[in-house]
Structure formats: C-alpha cells, structure tokens
Amino acid sequence: MIVRQLSEANQSNRRIISPDGNWESTRLLLKEDQMGFSFHITTIYEGADFQMHYQNHLESVYCISGEGEVKTLDDGQTYPIKPGTIYILDKHDKHVLRAFKEMKMACVFNPPLNGTEVHNAEGAYERDAAPISS
Ligand code: 9YT
Question: Domains in the chain, please, with CATH?
C-alpha cells in the first residue's frame, strides 16, 4: 500500500506551479506508482480563464471547493462548477475553464502523468515529460 499526505507533498517536487499563472497541482500519485492513472489536487486560481485540450490523456475533475464554469468548445455548452460537480473529458474535449472563486479540484488522468507536465501551446501534456524523481 502507498500512503501519502497532501501537506507533505505540497512541500516537495510533487507540487507543480503552472508558468501561465492559472493553476498549481500537487501530484499525489504518478505513473511510477504503476496504478494506471495519476491523481492530483489542483488549485485553479481566482480569475483564471484558460483553454486546455488533453489530446494525449483522459481526465476527470471533481470540485472540492470554489466556483467556476467549464465550456466545451465543440458545442459551445457551458456548465457551472461548484463543490460536488465532476466533469469528465471522455472525448479529449477541447475546453475553457474559468474560476470565479479559487477552486480546489481532485483530478485523475489516464494514462498517468510522469509528474512534471505543464501545458504546451495547445493546452495538452506531452507524453514524454520527465518524472519528478529525475
Ligand atoms: C482542472 C485542470 O485540468 N487543471 C489543470 C491542471 C491539471 N489538472 C493537473 O495537471 O493536475
């Protein structure tokens, strides 16, 4: 069994701060753990408004706290986000995420992240990012 503490992970290289200033993510479970998915606690900063397109990954995002919305760009639909909302990008959906109040999200990625990923110009993560231990 693996047991980790968010408070400890926040003090380590598991905490990734996005260069674009929109979010940070503490990656509690990664590819190297060989579970087939990764699990992160992500903070979306208040006022964030940015586009993502996870072409190489599927992602589920559960809102623990805060308030915002997510818009899928293919159909123009907007969905409010509040504590208890989960959105599931089952079609590699291109989307825009907005935070009206800082949001804490629990995120699961398949395939799992290596650990150091930040968004590329298309809002995706590359498959071959470095692991946190390297
Ligand atoms: C909700 C979302 O996708 N935020 C971007 C960061 C990502 N969840 C991550 O790397 O943890």
Answer: 6-110 (2.60.120.10)
